[in-house]
Amino acid sequence: MNPYEKKRRWKFFLLIFAILIGIASVFYTDSFVKKMEREEANQFQLWVKIQERSMFLMDNDNFTEIVESVRKNTKTPVIVVDSSEHITTYFGLDSNKTNYATDTKLVYDSLYFVHQLGKMKAQHRPLDMNILGTNYKAYYKDSFILTQLRYFPYIQMMVIFLFLLTAYAAFSSSRRAEQDHVWVGLAKETAHQLGTPISSLMAWTELMKSKFDAEDDPLIAEMENDIKRLEIITDRFSKIGSKPILEDHTVYIVISNFVDYFKVRTSDKVKFSITGDDQVRAMLNIPLFDWVIENLLKNAANAIENEGSIAINIIENLAKEQVFIDVTDSGKGIPRSKFDAVFQPGYTTRKRGWGLGLSLTKRIVENYHSGEIFVKDSELGKGTTFRIILKSSLTYEPTTA
């Protein structure tokens, strides 16, 4: 299992664990809410019975104290209506809307009563009341505390989720910064270590040319090309972590020069082609951009098992002043579910691969060239197309008739 798969599995386990905690919290709160619902229903029934008997025991001081005690401890809003659905009494509603003073008299908000009665009818069935031979219906709704408790687990889960999201972002940012620091140090140290053997190889080739009179020897020329390539690679590593200098270049020429170098070092069974606009220009750092093309071509060549082709098409988007570079191979393809995963550090399908090529490619395109790179299209058994989007260095003025 590669590091990417391990990281994804841990994320999956943590997500399942968080979901289980959330479900447990919801179930526990729900059981507590149901218990409070039963208590409020019992309290409401007690209130109805006391109201029915209060007219008969008005002169009983002990009963009067009980009535007052029940009323003070009842947190449930109540509305009583007669057989014609007219409100006769209420309890526990907002006093600012049920009875407020004007300059001449006390008035009430009738729409408030209608709204509250509608909510009570929607929540609970009424209880019948009989006071002095007259039938009434008593409605009630959940108390404010009970209503809060219904939403509490969801608010709790949201707060926990936001906290975990913030913590995850902070830790990820810190870990990424630490990893970047390690990679920058490793890259610069690698560039420093390569400097000495490269200088030695350059001296040895000059010595061979002079000793064996091999100025025009094609093998020496190829050795010099490889040494120059090593110099470019060293320059790439030395630029990691530093802001590269971008210069205006013709995209077709830059890509064509690298493909000429790369294809002679690849199997003859892989055919290369470059098509599209050969005049479009973009701001590039050639050593780093060559690295992008190299990684894409290496992945394309590795995806081709026997014979195949790699095509590069350069397209100019005049409307958005962008350059599209499509690299298409006829290899084994990528599953759609892995389109984003291929750019993750550590993701690889090769036994000896490190899974860093496309990750570095994405960083070079997006961070250093302010562009985009993504899998445009892929089909298993038929091939894959990667698209690079760069900002054109040419400004286009719209033509007017």
Automatic annotation (TrEMBL):
GO molecular function terms attached to this record: ATP binding; phosphorelay sensor kinase activity
Pfam families named in the record: HATPase_c
Keywords: ATP-binding, Kinase, Membrane, Nucleotide-binding, Phosphoprotein, Transferase, Transmembrane, Transmembrane helix, Two-component regulatory system
Domain Histidine kinase: 189-394
SUPFAM superfamilies: ATPase domain of HSP90 chaperone/DNA topoisomerase II/histidine kinase
Enzymatic class: transferase
Membrane-traversing stretches: 12-29, 151-171
Superkingdom of origin organism: Bacteria
CDD domains given in the database record: HisKA
InterPro entries for this protein: HATPase_C_sf (IPR036890), HATPase_dom (IPR003594), His_kinase_dom (IPR005467), HisK_dim/P_dom (IPR003661), Sig_transdc_His_kin-like_C (IPR004358)
Catalytic activity: ATP + protein L-histidine = ADP + protein N-phospho-L-histidine
PROSITE patterns listed in its UniProt record: HIS_KIN
Annotated EC: 2.7.13.3
Record's protein name: histidine kinase
